[in-house]
Amino acid sequence: MRKHIGSAALIAATIGFSVPAMALDVTPYGAIRVGTWYTSSTYYNPADGAAFHDADFTLDLQGDSLVGIRVKEGDFGGVAELGAYNPKNRSGGVELRLLFGEWDFGKGKLRVGYAPSPYVYRSEQTYDSDGGFNGYGSLWDGRHAQIKATLNNGMYLALMKPGTSKNGPVAATTNSGASWSGTPHNQTATVYAATNTNYDTYLPRTVLGYEGKSGIVNYGGGAALNAYTETQTNAGATAYKDEIYSYLAFAHTRIDLAPVELKFNLYGGRNIGNLMSNPAAAVGSFYQRNSAGRTADANTIGGWAQAGYVVNDKTKVFAGVSYETSDSNITELDDKLAAFANLQYVVTKNFKVVPEFTYLDDMNSIAGTKEPKIYAAGVKWEMSF
Predict the structure, then answer these.
(1) Which of 91, 236, 351, 378 would disulfide-bridge 37, Cβ 3.0–4.6 Å?
(2) What is the distance, to the nearest Å, from the Cα of residue 105 to the centroid of all Cα atoms in its chain?
């Protein structure tokens, strides 16, 4: 025990002497968020359409509660950020939210690490861990390893971990047994299995975009590409082999008409569920293969609009609506709708409350059946530093 205490003291002393020598600028930050929500849900029996209802009061952490640090030394900097467990996945434990280094090389910046996808653009909606229309028009697909170069003129190129989701949707799976099964650099196990799904990836998920500003207007947009082959084998025989290509075009803008603010997000693409590597994406946005062996690409369009108003230096109000629809030649329309209104009130510098009403409607499935709808009313409580 004494040896461990002595070692810890030595490490702490070393860090203490090293930080001034390295001239590091270290800034800690964080936000602790708790949500109190009343929800009323309606869901349906796919067989006969019979409706069932559920009502709940919940009090839990918002999944985007976080602590982090920003570090800077000369032309180099970095961010490390950890988040609380997601209330819907407590067994997952603490979440790594951000971890990247960035080099300012004069004409731009080079980022290497782990961060959200560049095409993500979220609203002020707070329900479901500051959802921001996640899954209803924001293109949110989590965070991914990436290499991103951004020029001072606003152009950027991001190379990201490839997406390999399949319709269902089911995230890419591997067979157990291989020592490297499930590693970031090997999508499929290398041991024989009677039933095997094999993913062959050829290039990174690639995003080319632009972010700019002109007067009161901030705007951005771009395009993304992803490609892979999925092969299903049964007892050594190939059941099917699909080449899945995904494309995405996106655009967004923010218009400052103080005290009014307007924000818009619009996107469209083919097989974007596969590109986004997002198990929570709409089923209809994935490349489709049915039980008869017919295949089809899925086409998706969606987006959201939001208006905000600054009442005073303590109070802002926001309202927005979103819609997404996906379709293919072998499925029915899969569409989603959401809307919200909230008030953000700053109690003190580091404490604010956000009462909100949200409506989520999953509308129809790819089989043409009715899907759940949720009414939520509650308050987000946030302390930040």
Answers:
(1) 378
(2) 28
In the chain, what's the furthest Cα-to-Cα distance? 71
Which CATH number fits the domain that encloses residue 126? 2.40.160
CA distances to 152, 222, 323 from 219, in Å: 15, 11, 20
Instruction: Find the mean pLDDT for residues 233-253.
Output: 93
Helix-, strand-, coil-residue percentages of the chain, each rounded to 5 = 10, 60, 35
264: how many CB neighbours lie within 10 A of its CB? 16
Structure tokens, 256:
């400052």
- At 113, which amino acid appears? G
In the predicted structure, residue 3 carries a pLDDT above the cut 90: no
| Mean pLDDT, rounded, for 284-296 | 90
Is the residue at 148 inside a domain? yes
Number of domains in the chain: 1
Per DSSP, the residues of 246-291 read EEEEEEEEEEEETTEEEEEEEEEEESHHHHTT-TTS-GGGS-EE-T
Cα–Cα distance for residue pair 65/370, rounded to 1 Å: 33
Residue 29 lies in a domain: no
What are the tokens at 219? 């705007």
pLDDT for 5: 42
Domain that holds residue 173: 117-375
Measured CA to CA, the distance from residue 121 to residue 40 in angstroms comes to 27
The distance in angstroms from the start CA to the end CA of the chain is: 35
Q: 201 lies in a domain?
A: yes
Give pLDDT, residue 24: 86
Alpha carbons 57 and 24: distance in angstroms, whole number: 46
Q: Which is it for the CA torsion 240, 198, 230, 284, positive or negative?
A: positive
B/e letters for 106-123, b = 16+ CB within 10 Å, e = fewer, are eeebebebbbbbbbbbbb
* Residue 82 domain flag: no
